[in-house]
Design a protein that fits this description.
Elements (H helix, E strand, L loop, with lengths): L1 H31 L19 H30 L25 E6 L19 E4 L4 E6 L8 E4 L3 E7 L8 E5 L4 E6 L7 E6 L1
């Protein structure tokens, strides 16, 4: 019985070995079998022929266009940079300036009215008429005594006395006295004989 089992086992091993060998051979045969390759189809489309003269002509045409454009730009720049012609202007006739009026020295008259030798004219401030005058430097004031009494035109005031700037001394009736003022200022004056008589000269 033991011998039969051993024989069966040996037989089984032999069968397995044969199967393995067959499988290995089949794989080897498959590996070395020739592989069919797909046929290569040649490209039968015709190639486009490039004309070298056409390429040269195109380059020449492009260069000519560039040169023409450059010339136009130069002409435009030249026109823009050229100076404009000078504008001719007609001489303008100017009128001579009018002469400057110069202030000539003038004489202002002051009246010593009749009746001023008696008090009362001071109430209306008419002992000298006008009682105040305004003149410019260099002008002259002339006092005309139309009264019958003698009067004076003395710089100063009754309160302070004579200033010493000007003094007519006695001006008899129907006589005149004048004084030219060379300095600006305000000058009060009065009559030394009749101290209620006062006046003023303003010099600009």
């Amino acid at each position: 019985m033991a011998n039969i089992d051993k024989a069966a086992i040996a037989f089984s091993i032999a069968i397995v070995a044969v199967g393995v060998g067959f499988a290995a051979y089949a794989g080897y045969a498959q590996d070395i079998a020739p592989v069919a390759k797909a046929p290569v189809i040649a490209n039968t489309e015709p190639k486009t022929q490039v004309d070298p003269m056409a390429s040269i002509a195109e380059k020449v045409k492009s260069a000519a266009a560039t040169t023409e454009k450059t010339t136009e730009l130069k002409e435009e720049v030249k026109m823009e940079t050229e100076p404009a012609p000078p504008v001719e202007t007609e001489p303008v006739e100017t009128e001579p300036a009018p002469p400057v009026e110069t202030s000539e020295p003038k004489t202002v008259s002051v009246i010593i009215p009749a009746g001023t030798s008696s008090p009362g004219c001071e109430t209306t401030n008419e002992c000298y008429t006008p009682a105040s005058v305004t003149i410019n430097v260099g002008d002259t004031v002339e006092w005309d005594n139309v009264d019958t009494a003698a009067h004076t035109v003395t710089g100063g005031s009754p309160a302070d006395g004579p200033s010493g700037v000007f003094d007519s001394s006695l001006v008899m009736g129907k006589a005149k006295y004048s004084h030219t003022f060379d300095n600006a200022g305000s000058y009060d004056y009065f009559c030394m004989v009749h101290p209620w008589m006062v006046g003023k000269v303003i010099v600009n």
